[in-house]
Amino acid sequence: MSIAFGPLSYGAAPLGNLYREVSVEQAHDALQATWDAGIRYFDTAPHYGLGLSERRLGAFLRGKPRDEFVVSTKVGRLLVPNPDDDGSGDLDRVFKVPGDLMRRFDMTEAGIRRSLDESLERLGLDRVDIVYLHDPDVYDIDRGLREGLPALAALRDEGLVREVGVGTNSTAAAARAVREGDLDLVLIAGRYTLLEQPALDELFPVCAKGGVRVVSAAPFNSGLLATNELPADARYDYVSAPRAVLDRVRELAGVCASFGVELPAAALQFPGRNPVVATTLVGMASPDEVRQNVQRVSATIPDGLWEALD
């Protein structure tokens, strides 16, 4: 039986100090607010803060009944000692953590099994429910899919995980993985949002045909759609947003305002309107962000707004 998801799920990248430091207390409080809101799917990865996200998430979930939550992590990057650590940290990878470790791509079966074992150790859990092959397109997509996809299927067949998938920002890579592998899920980040929908061209049709469900992540496009007013340091795909993108966001915000709807509420609800999307995954660093997004995902939005945006 397929894993069931709610409309809103928790992305744990902020727990790895994405862009800025998050205190232990703030991380715990954000997770507690998430739990109190009834959200039960949590996604993390070794990549997020060089294991910090997994450790913080695991510390929280260890006190919860194991059958009451779903957790996913990712494989394909091993964390190994960094011989070139100069004390500058990991900011080149947008995480504000020490740089004593480094990422090493390894999508072999042995590497994937080692990655999962090490993730379980950091999480302090005896199992995860879902494993995603993380960014095979960043490494070597031919080799990554050739070696990684059969390894994922083996983990599922052995009962070590319930479902497997691929997690990426690339719709082309995700569509290829669906065609070439035996996947249950695709986690696609930033490619099916109110701002842009390239996932409709190839990925969603191949998922619908193969019965593969989509976890739509990063609905705010690196924060561009997270507020009604653009922040001064607006980012797009983790770098400074280009002017054309900013103009597009302002246009979307204007349409939403004309209907009395917050741009973030429309952004959060948009992905779930497509039947191939199983849940929308959002990174949230504070209790206030959690509570705001819970309200937004259930806010009333008139049909006329969707028609105007279409």
What is the fold's blueprint, element by element?
Blueprint (H helix, E strand, L loop, with lengths): L7 E4 L12 H13 L4 E3 L8 H10 L8 E6 L1 E5 L19 E5 L3 H15 L6 E5 L1 H4 L1 H17 L5 E6 L2 H10 L4 E5 L13 H8 L2 E5 L17 E2 L2 E2 L2 H16 L4 H7 L7 E7 L3 H11 L5 H7 L1
Parallel strand pairs: 1-2, 1-12, 2-3, 3-6, 6-7, 7-8, 8-9, 9-12
Antiparallel strand pairs: 4-5, 10-11
Helix pairs in contact: 1-10, 6-7, 9-10
Note down, in words, how this protein is organized.
With 310 residues, this protein is α/β, with parallel strands linked by helices. The chain has one domain (8-221, 265-285): TIM Barrel (Alpha-Beta Barrel), CATH 3.20.20. Helices cover 38% and strands 18% of the residues. It is built from eleven helices and twelve strands. The protein has helices at residues 24-36, 52-61, 109-123, 136-139, 141-157, 171-180, 203-210, 243-258, 263-269, 287-297, 303-309, and strands at 8-11, 41-43, 70-75, 77-81, 101-105, 130-134, 163-168, 185-189, 213-217, 235-236, 239-240, 277-283. The strands form three sheets. An eight-stranded parallel barrel has the order 1-2-3-6-7-8-9-12, surrounded by four helices. It has a two-stranded antiparallel sheet with strand order 4-5. Strands 10-11 form a two-stranded antiparallel ribbon. Helix 1 (24-36) runs parallel beside helix 10. It starts with 7 loop residues before the first strand and ends with a helix. The mean pLDDT is 96.
